């Protein structure tokens, strides 16, 4: 969707950037009872977003290791994706 919007809005002078955050520590994520790999503070997330937008990146994703893992995960068959996600987000004791 972001790519389509970028093409449609470019002639109007609007730049579209897709923001793909990992887990960010917030009051909402504090309520989660499952593992959140590579949880980052909001200040770090804010910095990543602001830097990415300043550089006019088409996609801003962070933390990078987590984002790249998700991109690789998306190439797997759906059953394998679901099995890995279930394992990663098991409820913590």
Summarize the structure.
The chain is mainly α and 93 residues long.
Determine the N-to-C terminus distance: 38 Å
Structural class: mainly alpha
Shape: globular
Which radius of gyration do the C-alpha atoms yield? 16 Å
Low-confidence stretches: none
List the helices and strands and how they pair.
Elements: H1 2-10, E1 18-21, H2 27-30, H3 42-54, E2 59-62, H4 64-73, H5 78-88
Parallel strand pairs: 1-2
Folded structure, characterized:
- The chain contains five helices and two strands, in the order H-E-H-H-E-H-H.
- The termini are far apart.
- It has a two-stranded parallel sheet with strand order 1-2.
- 4% of the residues are buried.
- It has one domain.
- The radius of gyration is 16 Å and the shape is globular.
- The model has no long low-confidence stretch (mean pLDDT 92).
- Helices cover 51% and strands 9% of the residues.
- The chain has helices at residues 2-10, 27-30, 42-54, 64-73, 78-88, and strands at 18-21, 59-62.
- It has 93 residues and is mostly helical.
Primary descriptors:
two-stranded parallel sheet, 2 strands, 93 residues
């Amino acid at each position: 969707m972001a790519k389509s919007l970028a093409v449609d809005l470019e002639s109007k002078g609007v730049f579209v950037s897709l923001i793909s955050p990992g887990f960010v520590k917030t009051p909402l994520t504090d309520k989660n009872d499952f593992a959140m790999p590579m949880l980052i503070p909001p200040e770090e997330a804010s910095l990543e977003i602001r830097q990415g937008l300043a550089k006019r990146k088409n996609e801003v994703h962070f933390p990078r290791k987590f984002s790249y893992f998700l991109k690789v995960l998306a190439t797997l068959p759906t059953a394998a994706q679901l099995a890995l996600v279930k394992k990663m987000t098991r409820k913590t004791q």
